């Protein structure tokens, strides 16, 4: 800062000398003559003039003399203003991120409803899209929440809940009505065919086939292709997770929990 102060001081002196000396020495001629007669003209009082009545050169000089001395101290001014910020605001950090009432409630909803999407969280909290997006970003930035992109939709999980990639995919499917119903059916009836699933759930055959292809690619379902029609079963990891988490939330939009492990109250045999 001291270096910049010297630079500005030197610049101020140079500009002042240039404005005062150069125009006069370059163009003016001085003639000194003795006074030989008394002034007989009329005397007038001095007239007051404003800043805007000054010549442009004088206005510029006046502006420079006013502004330049304060430039070296702009950094100190901004620093002083920054000290006032804590009086009304504070920085959100990991240790105080849940002090906000809405953010704490949002985090509780994500903990209670792992895998919830943005639309579902809006319904649970009643917040506007912009407000929800802001507080979600804060929770993600401070490491409280993880957002997982699953089938072009963001799914949210609390960081303190440890799920594997397979478990997150299962949870995300359980939160949607159709894929959740299919997984529940396979948990009840391992080895079911496409037509059996479609008939029991009131779905079309192509809809069931589409979900089965996705489940197979994600390691959730296996298909027995040695017989026709194909028979589908949950993978060992998926079945173990669903049996272990019988109280997992039901998919959004279902009116009952029938067919879900939590509603049945016991483990479904893996036969």
Automatic annotation (TrEMBL):
<dbReference type="InterPro" id="IPR036390">
    <property type="entry name" value="WH_DNA-bd_sf"/>
</dbReference>
<protein>
    <recommendedName>
        <fullName>HTH arsR-type domain-containing protein</fullName>
    </recommendedName>
</protein>
<keyword id="KW-0812">Transmembrane</keyword>
<keyword id="KW-0472">Membrane</keyword>
<keyword id="KW-1133">Transmembrane helix</keyword>
<feature type="region of interest" description="Disordered">
    <location>
        <begin position="238"/>
        <end position="271"/>
    </location>
</feature>
<feature type="domain" description="HTH arsR-type">
    <location>
        <begin position="169"/>
        <end position="247"/>
    </location>
</feature>
<dbReference type="Pfam" id="PF13412">
    <property type="entry name" value="HTH_24"/>
</dbReference>
<dbReference type="InterPro" id="IPR011991">
    <property type="entry name" value="ArsR-like_HTH"/>
</dbReference>
<dbReference type="GO" id="GO:0003700">
    <property type="term" value="F:DNA-binding transcription factor activity"/>
</dbReference>
<feature type="transmembrane region" description="Helical">
    <location>
        <begin position="61"/>
        <end position="85"/>
    </location>
</feature>
<dbReference type="InterPro" id="IPR001845">
    <property type="entry name" value="HTH_ArsR_DNA-bd_dom"/>
</dbReference>
<dbReference type="InterPro" id="IPR036388">
    <property type="entry name" value="WH-like_DNA-bd_sf"/>
</dbReference>
